[in-house]
Write a structure and sequence with these properties.
Blueprint: H1 24-33, E1 43-50, H2 53-58, E2 68-75, E3 93-102, H3 112-125, E4 132-134, E5 138-141, E6 144-155, E7 163-172, H4 179-183, H5 198-219, H6 225-230, E8 238-243, E9 246-256, E10 262-266, E11 269-273, E12 279-282
Helix pairs in contact: 1-5, 3-5
Length: 284
């Protein structure tokens, strides 16, 4: 997910025979036929355009009985952390959200974004793509942002021990001309995936994601901590925590704790940082 300002370029839909709308039927069939088929059956929807797949699903939670995967070629009002706008275009991104019902109260979902990051990195490895994780919810490739994760939750009013989570993912498949110059930073892209049918890519990612959510429900973040650490992009490196433009912590990134806080070794000792709206940066 690219949490940035409006596009400096005008995306144009590719020809229909070059980048067709994801076929929901084919995707559902691949999900069911995979040797790594999800534990739960996923309903699938695919649309050419919407405002936000996360918003779409959040508005429908009260009527859902099963997990639902919603894919959109283009999102006109996609969001990242803290409501920041992010960009999507069918030629350059893959965007989708999954609604999932947890038999856990809201407070028991701490660390869920980290588990989802692990699932996404492991799914990309199926295609030979080696990615890393930047705390709390970014996926990097060679140090540049490849994908982002946005998770929104809602407690079930009638059942306090039940929580719905909507997991939104934006994955870069290409880098539009001029975008890196305009943002003054590198952007990661999974160019290899453009040679794959989108249904195949989505089936692998959605299966990995569903398996991870099921595993998280059974055991929480503990099952993912070592796997997250193995993908930690900044481990052992000097970093800064920035809050609204102000550096609030500096030190060496160590790992995460049992609730998903980032551990940093500072001159005053080890500190644990909650996600909130802080930003993690490598020290210059």
């Amino acid at each position: 997910m690219n949490n940035n300002s409006p596009l400096p370029w005008t995306p144009t839909p590719p020809p229909a025979d070059d980048l067709p709308l994801v076929d929901a039927g084919k995707l559902a069939a691949q999900l069911g036929a995979s040797e790594h088929a999800p534990v739960r059956t996923l309903a699938v929807e695919a649309v050419a355009q919407t405002g936000s797949t996360n918003v779409d699903l959040m508005l429908r939670l009260s009527s859902l009985a099963h997990p639902l995967l919603r894919v959109a070629d283009r999102q006109s009002a996609g969001r990242g952390r803290a409501g920041r706008p992010w960009r999507s275009d069918p030629a350059a991104t893959l965007t989708f959200s999954l609604a999932w019902r947890f038999e856990r109260p809201l407070h028991a979902l701490l660390g869920l974004p980290l588990a989802v990051g692990v699932a996404l990195v492991e799914a990309l490895q199926v295609f030979g793509i080696q990615a890393q994780l930047k705390w709390p919810n970014d996926v990097l490739r060679d140090g540049a942002k490849l994908a982002g994760i946005l998770i929104e939750t809602a407690a079930d009013v009638a059942q306090p021990q039940v929580t719905w989570a909507v997991v939104g993912i934006g994955l870069n498949l290409d880098v539009p001309p001029g975008l890196e110059q305009e943002l003054d930073r590198s952007i990661g892209a999974a160019h290899e995936l453009r040679r794959q049918p989108r249904e195949t890519v989505l089936a692998v990612i959605a299966s990995a994601l569903a398996s991870a959510l099921d595993e998280f429900e059974r055991g929480g973040l503990a099952a993912f901590m070592a796997r997250w650490q193995a993908c930690h992009a900044y481990v052992g490196q000097a970093v800064r925590i920035i809050d609204h433009g102000t550096v609030v912590q500096e030190g060496v990134a160590a790992g995460i704790d049992a609730v998903g806080r980032l551990l940093i070794d500072t001159q005053q000792g080890r500190v644990a940082v909650m996600a909130g709206d802080v930003s993690l940066r490598l020290a210059q």
